[in-house]
């Protein structure tokens, strides 16, 4: 099955695209987009892979599913389009960056600037029906994105995985901790952050320390 995804990923994911579950997933997604308003826009479903190529990926951030509000989701986890108000989790992410690295809070919540530096902003579920959080979960997306994480773990070395919250932490079993770096914390959502489980994790500075120790270019957060 031909999927419009950046060519650098194609050799690694082609086998996945040809599995029966993926064909069923494609039919489900097509039907949902035909019958309902869904996010992100169809051409943005695989945007995370378009902005962070297989070879350039050096950091992986795992989200759960896209924002389900009008005009928010742009295909990258935690990211919104330019000029869209920042959702609560993204606000807390930027506050932690500001605190950790003394970087001014940004105007735009569009994280394409992170992705272009090799951060794969991967939601476990890549689509959602408008106004219905989690509506496309358990339809096959998780099987696909788990395969992506496993392939990255197997095929690359020295990646940095940021696992925020209980859902993301469950992905640790897919990652070979002997050759990759895994940083965990609470989720940046207000519920978790207000309980002291997010702020102060220092992940953004730690990522850059690891990258510099590997001789790689640090992220301009």
From TrEMBL:
<feature type="active site" description="Proton acceptor">
    <location>
        <position position="65"/>
    </location>
</feature>
<dbReference type="InterPro" id="IPR002043">
    <property type="entry name" value="UDG_fam1"/>
</dbReference>
<keyword id="KW-0963">Cytoplasm</keyword>
<dbReference type="Pfam" id="PF03167">
    <property type="entry name" value="UDG"/>
</dbReference>
<comment type="similarity">
    <text>Belongs to the uracil-DNA glycosylase (UDG) superfamily. UNG family.</text>
</comment>
<dbReference type="InterPro" id="IPR018085">
    <property type="entry name" value="Ura-DNA_Glyclase_AS"/>
</dbReference>
<keyword id="KW-0234">DNA repair</keyword>
<dbReference type="GO" id="GO:0005737">
    <property type="term" value="C:cytoplasm"/>
</dbReference>
<keyword id="KW-0378">Hydrolase</keyword>
<dbReference type="InterPro" id="IPR005122">
    <property type="entry name" value="Uracil-DNA_glycosylase-like"/>
</dbReference>
<comment type="function">
    <text>Excises uracil residues from the DNA which can arise as a result of misincorporation of dUMP residues by DNA polymerase or due to deamination of cytosine.</text>
</comment>
<keyword id="KW-0227">DNA damage</keyword>
<dbReference type="GO" id="GO:0004844">
    <property type="term" value="F:uracil DNA N-glycosylase activity"/>
</dbReference>
<feature type="domain" description="Uracil-DNA glycosylase-like">
    <location>
        <begin position="49"/>
        <end position="211"/>
    </location>
</feature>
<protein>
    <recommendedName>
        <fullName>Uracil-DNA glycosylase</fullName>
        <ecNumber>3.2.2.27</ecNumber>
    </recommendedName>
</protein>
<keyword id="KW-0326">Glycosidase</keyword>
<dbReference type="InterPro" id="IPR036895">
    <property type="entry name" value="Uracil-DNA_glycosylase-like_sf"/>
</dbReference>
<dbReference type="GO" id="GO:0097510">
    <property type="term" value="P:base-excision repair, AP site formation via deaminated base removal"/>
</dbReference>
């Amino acid at each position: 099955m031909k999927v419009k995804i950046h060519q650098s990923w194609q050799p690694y994911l082609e086998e996945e695209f040809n599995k029966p579950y993926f064909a069923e997933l494609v039919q489900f997604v097509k039907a949902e987009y035909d019958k309902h308003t869904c996010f992100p826009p169809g051409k943005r479903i695989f945007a995370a892979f378009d902005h962070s190529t297989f070879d350039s990926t050096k950091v992986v951030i795992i989200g759960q599913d896209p924002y389900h509000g009008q005009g928010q989701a742009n295909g990258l986890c935690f990211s919104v389009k330019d000029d869209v108000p920042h959702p609560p989790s993204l606000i807390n992410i930027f506050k932690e960056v500001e605190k950790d690295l003394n970087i001014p809070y940004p105007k735009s919540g569009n994280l394409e600037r992170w992705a272009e530096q090799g951060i794969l902003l991967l939601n476990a579920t890549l689509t959602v029906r408008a106004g219905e959080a989690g509506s496309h979960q358990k339809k096959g997306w998780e099987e696909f994105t788990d395969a992506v994480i496993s392939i990255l773990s197997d095929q690359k070395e020295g990646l940095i995985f940021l696992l925020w919250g209980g859902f993301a932490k469950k992905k640790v079993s897919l990652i070979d901790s002997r050759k990759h770096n895994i940083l965990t914390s609470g989720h940046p959502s207000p519920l978790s952050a207000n309980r002291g489980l997010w702020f102060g994790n220092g992940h953004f500075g730690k990522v850059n320390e690891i990258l510099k120790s590997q001789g790689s270019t640090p992220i301009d957060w």
